[in-house]
Specification:
Layout lengths: L7 H13 L13 H13 L9 E5 L3 H20 L3 H9 L10 E8 L16 H19 L3 E5 L4 H7 L6 E10 L9 H4 L15
Helix pairs in contact: 2-5
The structure holds ligand FNR.
The ligand Cc1cc2c(cc1C)N(C[C@H](O)[C@H](O)[C@H](O)COP(=O)(O)O)c1[nH]c(=O)[nH]c(=O)c1N2 binds next to strand 3.
Catalytic activity: FMNH2 + O2 = dialurate + 5,6-dimethylbenzimidazole + D-erythrose 4-phosphate + H(+)
Keywords: Cobalamin biosynthesis, Flavoprotein, FMN, NAD, NADP, Nucleotide-binding, Oxidoreductase
Protein name: 5,6-dimethylbenzimidazole synthase
């Protein structure tokens, strides 16, 4: 096996990549080059997965009908979420933009195949949710790969997953992990939008307890 080391310069760049990764809700409508998208999607093949089960299943949502169904799903779930807040929080929530579905050129629905035989159940017998966590690890790599190309990703979870699963006509054993908007971001920042808009702040330091 080839020994590989990374330079200080690479480490600094990687740190910057992580700092500049944002959840993007504001996209330019310019198309994304298919070769660049394919290169970024390769991140899924590099991701860790429980038992090497590779349980991610990706649907590219292109038809007007499927996109409209997803958008309406979001709008309903978002209105329901807004109704769960009151006072200043409700006013603040109402002002947030929580998906870029109307502008993003690429839409992906990512699922976990809960019934896959791949991996022969290794690591998931007592904790089957590990398959879903595996999909999340892959999405994180994909997110960074996109950012390295200057592209942005927005995770949309304000959705009724069963309704989306039905609308996209996917197998019953597939569980929705997230709906993703992808494209060229309108802005870049080292600060999450929810922090900039005063919804929540990041903790100053990570507290690790010992036992
Ligand atoms: C599992 C999961 C699900 C969602 C999110 C993230 C993750 C990890 N986020 C994005 C989230 O708000 C964002 O990551 C944090 O606010 C931190 O900002 P940065 O990602 O650092 O820019 C998100 N954002 C949004 O506007 N609508 C959404 O439905 C969701 N859903």
């Amino acid at each position: 096996m080839r020994e590989h080391t990374f330079s200080d310069d690479f480490r600094a760049q990687f740190d910057l990549l992580m700092r500049l990764r944002r959840d993007v809700r504001r996209f330019r409508t310019d198309p994304v080059d298919e070769a660049v998208l394919a290169r970024c999607l390769d991140a899924f093949r590099l991701a860790p997965s429980v038992g090497l089960s590779e349980p991610w299943r990706i649907i590219r949502v292109t038809s007007a009908q499927a996109r409209t169904a997803a958008l309406e799903n979001f709008q309903t779930a978002n209105a329901d979420a807004l109704a769960g807040y009151s006072g200043d929080r409700a006013r603040q929530y109402g002002r947030l933009k929580l998906s870029g579905m109307q502008d993003a050129p690429v839409h992906l629905a990512v699922f976990c195949d809960d019934a896959t035989d791949q991996g022969h159940g290794l690591g998931a017998a007592t904790m089957p949710e590990m398959r879903r966590y595996s999909v999340v690890t892959a999405i994180t790599l994909f997110w960074l790969a996109l950012r390295a190309e200057g592209l942005g990703l927005g995770w949309v979870s304000i959705l009724d997953p069963d309704r989306l699963t039905r609308d996209l006509d996917v197998p019953a054993n597939w569980r929705l992990i997230g709906y993703f908007c992808l494209g060229w971001p309108d802005e870049t920042s080292e600060t999450p939008e929810l922090e900039r808009l005063g919804w929540e702040t990041r903790r100053p330091a990570m507290a690790i307890e010992t036992r």
